[in-house]
Structures are given as C-alpha cells and as structure tokens.
C-alpha cells in the first residue's frame, strides 16, 4: 500500500482534520516522505527513541503512535529533538500520530477501550472539547464496589506494576462512570453535571483531591500510559484488516 493511501485511510477514520484547531499535537503523518510503500506497520503508545528503535529492528515501514514528537512544531532540530528524528529519517521509518482524535473515537478510541474493560452499557460521548469529545460515559452492567472496579482495571491494564489509585468520595455502589483517559481530571465538573458517580482517568492533579471530595464523586487514577494503549491496539486490528503486517510494542512507564 502506498504511504499516502495509508495516511488518508487513517485520517478519514479518525477525522483528523476535525481536531486540527483543538490539539497541540500535530496529528497525522508527522515524519515521512511524499512517496513510499507500506507493508509492515508497528504500533505503540509513545513515539520515542525506544519505540523507534524497536520498529526499525522489526523492519517496519511505519510506526503509529498516540503520543508523537511534535507538539506545536520545532524551533530547532538539535539535541534530543535531533536524536529522536534521526533514526526515523535515516531508516525511512514513517511516523503517524493520533492524539485527541484517537481519544475521542467512540469505537476505536482509548476511552471506548476502558469502557469495554468495565463492560459499560449505553455508552455516549463525554468530555467536551470545543465541538468534539475526548471521552465516554456509560452505565455499569451491575454496580461496582470501588475495590472491584480497581481490581478489574489492575488485572487488565498494563500499569507497569503500579497500583490503581482511588479517591473514594462518592457512592459506595458505582453505576454511572465517566472516562477521559490520560490526564482527564479537568473534566471532573462535567462528570458531576452528567450524573456520574465516578470519573476514571489516568493521572491526577493535586487539586482534584479537594474538588472530588467537595463534589462527592469517586476518582480512579489508573495510569496515563495504562489507559492509553487501547486506541493503538484497535488501529492495529484495523490495519491488519487492510492486509498489512503489524507489530505492537508495549513500553509501559508506570505513570
């Protein structure tokens, strides 16, 4: 498959252009030539030297990640920026990135993956960001106790050996769950307004402890990395359906 077709297919599925004015990440093809063939695609959550090297060693033509290397562009291609870019260019490895578009995708996205793990029903978009959404909200098939919800996430997510943290300020029986993966505590008020009794996200900020306590809502911090591997794994399945060889790399951070 030509690289241009590969990129166009992903951009169409993820509605990349719709997030152009909302996301600091330069989504889409971040590094790559105008013309190239793609037969083998690697996938990972993070576009970093470790995943670049593994993709090169695997003989991949392209690497698809959630977190890329361009967040508002480059002023100078020196130091660590140069060190990151060099392996891609020297080895003709294309880098495709999907940040918020992959968070917000209601079937393939990160929040959708967490909702599947928790077996939520009646899921709907959640986490407004301008005209788009970056999360999901749903109802538990059966009410969770907070310990059971934490155990479900710890046993399923790649947390790097770290425990899932909980701020237990909401009801003991958890039914209505809002999800924004990664760093999603800024959507706590929206979760309260939506009638959620629990917000599941990746990492917290200091202020969320008091905000959750005052609002009477549970917050579950399952790890930034751990909550954001679902999207790229879903894209891997999609790309396999296009007849391309794929490889997935797990490089957990424990954060």
Output the CATH topology of the largest domain: Udp-n-acetylmuramoylalanyl-d-glutamate--2,6- Diaminopimelate Ligase, Chain: A, domain 1
Query: If you average the pLDDT, what whole number results?
Result: 96
CATH class of the largest domain: Alpha Beta
Strand content: 25-35%
What is the terminal separation in angstroms? 36 Å
Radius of gyration: 19 Å
CATH superfamily of the largest domain: NIF3 (NGG1p interacting factor 3)-like
Low-confidence segments, given as residue ranges, are: none
- Order of the strands making up the biggest sheet: 5-6-8-9-10-7
Largest sheet: 6 strands, mixed
Helix content: 25-40%
What does this structure look like?
The model has no long low-confidence stretch (mean pLDDT 96). The chain starts with a helix and ends in a 7-residue tail after the last strand. The protein folds into two domains: 3-98 and 229-248, 3-Layer(aba) Sandwich (Udp-n-acetylmuramoylalanyl-d-glutamate--2,6- Diaminopimelate Ligase, Chain: A, domain 1), CATH 3.40.1390; 103-227, Udp-n-acetylmuramoylalanyl-d-glutamate--2,6- Diaminopimelate Ligase, Chain: A, domain 1 (3-Layer(aba) Sandwich). It is elongated. α2 runs parallel beside α3 (79-90). The chain is α/β, with parallel strands linked by helices. A six-stranded mixed sheet has the order 5-6-8-9-10-7, sandwiched between helices. It is 33% helix and 26% strand. β8, α7 and β9 form a beta-alpha-beta unit.
């Amino acid at each position: 498959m030509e690289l241009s077709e590969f990129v166009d297919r992903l951009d169409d599925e993820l509605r990349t252009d719709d997030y152009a004015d909302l996301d600091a990440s330069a989504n889409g093809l971040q590094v790559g030539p105008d013309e190239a063939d793609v037969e083998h695609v690697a996938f990972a959550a993070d576009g970093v030297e470790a995943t670049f090297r593994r993709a090169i060693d695997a003989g991949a033509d392209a690497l698809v990640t959630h977190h890329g290397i361009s967040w508002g562009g480059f002023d100078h291609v020196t130091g660590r920026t140069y060190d990151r870019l060099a392996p891609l260019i020297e080895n003709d490895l294309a880098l495709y990135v999907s940040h918020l578009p992959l968070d917000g995708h209601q079937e393939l996205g990160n929040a959708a993956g967490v909702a599947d793990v928790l077996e939520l029903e009646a899921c709907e978009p959640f986490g407004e960001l301008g005209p788009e959404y970056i999360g999901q909200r749903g109802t538990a098939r059966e009410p969770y106790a907070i310990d059971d919800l934490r155990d479900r996430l710890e046993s399923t997510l790649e947390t790097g050996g770290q425990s899932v943290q909980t701020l237990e300020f909401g009801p003991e029986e958890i039914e209505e769950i809002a999800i924004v993966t990664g760093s999603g505590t800024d959507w706590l008020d929206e979760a309260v307004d939506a009638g959620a009794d629990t917000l599941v996200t990746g990492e917290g900020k200091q202020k969320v402890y008091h905000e959750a306590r005052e609002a009477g809502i549970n917050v579950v911090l399952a790890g930034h990395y751990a909550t954001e591997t679902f999207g790229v794994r879903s894209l891997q399945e999609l790309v396999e359906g296009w007849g391309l060889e794929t490889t997935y790399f797990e490089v957990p951070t424990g954060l």
